[in-house]
Design brief:
The protein is mostly helical. Helices cover about 65% and strands about 0% of the residues. The radius of gyration is 32 Å and the shape is elongated.
């Protein structure tokens, strides 16, 4: 741009300062306008939409090598993007895959070390808040559940959040002490491979109908892939 101005001035022999200044300013304006127009033209073109086959290929490439049932995960991740009208771009796919990997390593219902101890602490805390003696609570949990095992035995054997949630739901509905301690409050509040908050899932499903058959409840669906 500046080379053009210098060439124009020297070729036409302009010597008047005011004329030269006006010409200088005009040429800068013309050149700058042309440059901006070129940039605007480059930026205005939106990237083409990602095609289904391309999106599936991107998802498959983003999955860690350790993932089992890669086709199933690819189908479900792609369906999630499609049903929520989210562009399956490389950035969005990598973000989703990173969250799943961090939260569960692509295990739908991952094993949680020390889960039984966590559950007992929650039970004792709720008993204290409700003003119920701990001895009485632990006695109630020794009652047999519908599986034939006592609630205490099932809690001690629980390995996953789904195991624990089913015990609490059973206890809340079957034993009077359950409603005293937990009412309709299940302490397992985040679930599944992406650790989705149950309250959020219910609110979202109320706003945008859940796209799959609900066998039990939205709370239970959150545990699924």
């Amino acid at each position: 741009m500046f080379g053009l101005i210098v060439h124009f001035r020297s070729e036409h022999g302009y010597s008047d300062g005011r004329t030269s200044l006006r010409l200088h300013g005009s040429l800068i304006l013309v050149a700058l306008t042309a440059w901006l127009a070129g940039c605007a033209g480059t930026r205005s073109s939106a990237p083409p939409p990602v095609q289904p086959d391309q999106a599936r290929a991107l998802i498959g490439a983003a999955l860690p090598t350790s993932v089992l049932d890669r086709a199933g995960w690819t189908d479900d991740i792609y369906a999630a993007f499609t049903l929520q009208s989210i562009d399956p771009t490389r950035e969005n796919i990598c973000a989703a895959v990173a969250v799943i990997e961090q939260e569960s390593s692509f295990r739908v219902d991952p094993v949680i070390p020390g889960l039984a101890a966590i559950a007992w602490r929650e039970i004792d805390s709720r008993a204290e808040q409700a003003g119920v003696p701990q001895l009485l609570v632990h006695g109630a949990l020794k009652l047999p559940s519908h599986t034939g095992l006592s609630y205490s035995e099932r809690i001690d054997a629980a390995k996953t959040e789904k195991d624990l949630s089913e015990i609490f739901e059973d206890f809340i509905g079957a034993v009077p002490m359950g409603r005293t301690l937990f009412a309709d409050y299940n302490p397992v509040r985040t679930r599944g491979p992406m650790q989705v908050n149950v309250a959020f899932a219910k609110q979202y499903a109320a706003a945008r109908p859940y796209p799959y058959p609900v066998n039990v409840s939205i709370s239970d669906e959150v545990f699924s892939r």
